[in-house]
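User: Structure please.
Assistant: Input sequence and predicted structure:
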Amino acid sequence: MGGGTAATWQWSFGGGATPNSSTDPSPEVVLGAAGTYTATLVASNAGGTDTFNLGYTVNVALPNITAVSPKTGVTGTSYSPAATNSGGAIANWQWNFDGGATPNLPTDATPTVTLGAPGAYEAEVEGNNVSGSSALSFLLEVATTAPGGVSASDGSSDVHVAVSWNTTTGADRYVVERATSQGGTYAAIESNVTGTSYNDTTASSGTTYWYRVLAVVDPVGHDPIFSAPSTADSGWRSTLAPTGVAATDGTHTDKVAITWNAVTGATSYTVLRATSSGGTYSSIGTPSGTSFNDTTASIGTTYWYKVRSESSNGSGGTSSSDSGWRSTSAPTGVAATDGTHSDKVTISWNTVTGATNYTVLRATSSGGTYSSIGTNPGTSFDDTTASIGTTYWYKVRSESASGSGGTSSSNDGWRSTEAPTNVQATDGDFTTKVRITWSAVSGASSYSVLRSTTAGGTYTVIGTSNNETYDDNTVTQSTYYFYKVRSESTPGSGGTSTNDSGYAGDAPA
């Protein structure tokens, strides 16, 4: 090259250097494997070419393992840790795992092992090269699998939500977590469950919750190791059964009224009805309040009612039953005879739908105390116990198989006195009068004497007597008169006798 300045440069490197060639006057390369190598430089210009050989040695730095990741895994699953090396390249690896891992002594840079029993184990990784070795011990935490079969009850209890799950091998205890939505924030509600079930008594009625369970291993001398959360399941606590359920017993003629106490968390209620206490109950209404009128109840039928609380989640508890019935209506058209009969008072009324019987009630004044004097399935009744001369007030109450129904308004009636007997008028015994006599009538307080000039003529009252004798001083001598006597009492006129003729003075011609 004649000592002049080189115009071109050509470098060549061995031992795996990168790049392994360069045309720069001052190249930068990354050296490869450790060893002794020769670098060749060919420099050229117009005057010629010179070749230079440069010997050099590549040394490897010591390994420096500073970290391992990950340091957690799940029993029975594959685990592939990787070590962080800030030193020289590692030629050989040695891992050491405890706790039943398979294999437990792998020599791969990133081994894959199957983890053994849950727990905390001391593990180690070592790497070496021609310059030396580096080792690092670390704690390997092996968790259990997440619990399976998590199930939360859907309204089966009104005091709790029952959460259950399958046994997880190796778990020392379980943590139950709860959230108000599937993807919401879960918080532990119990952290020391040793069995496979838990009753959440803090759940509010009418709220849907989501539950998940974690299995926990408690290694001696180490912090707890938690599994991954289970799949979440929703559940809810039902509303309580209503209390104080009461159905009216014949209070109304158009309905049975059912009432109950309010239930916390209930948004509505279902009213159920059956025709016997232990019969099949069917829904008849869904009120939002605490009362319901059953207007479909048949008159004369006893029903049993239950009430079930409802919420946005579903049906809650069902109450105990109470019986009730719709009464028959009060009879109308009640009428008692006013002296029509001397041996009875007849009471009549209109038929009431659903009534199987009627009770006749009697009092001695309109506003007095009414007592039953008899029953009749028909629409009339004869009061043969009525005293002559007393006015009575009568009411009629309808009856059915369930019980007593409505009671009518009152109507008064009375039993008349009988017709007097043995009526006799004198025939000429007196010159200026006719004397009429008769037998006493039980219950009569007075008597009315009636007169006509013919046997079949019109009879007119000519006077009254408080005893069984009356003198007719208004007669004309030698004229026939015909007389009848009517008994009287406080309520009114009673029976009228047959007639008898009489005259004053000489006998008529």
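The two ends are 207 Å apart (CA to CA).
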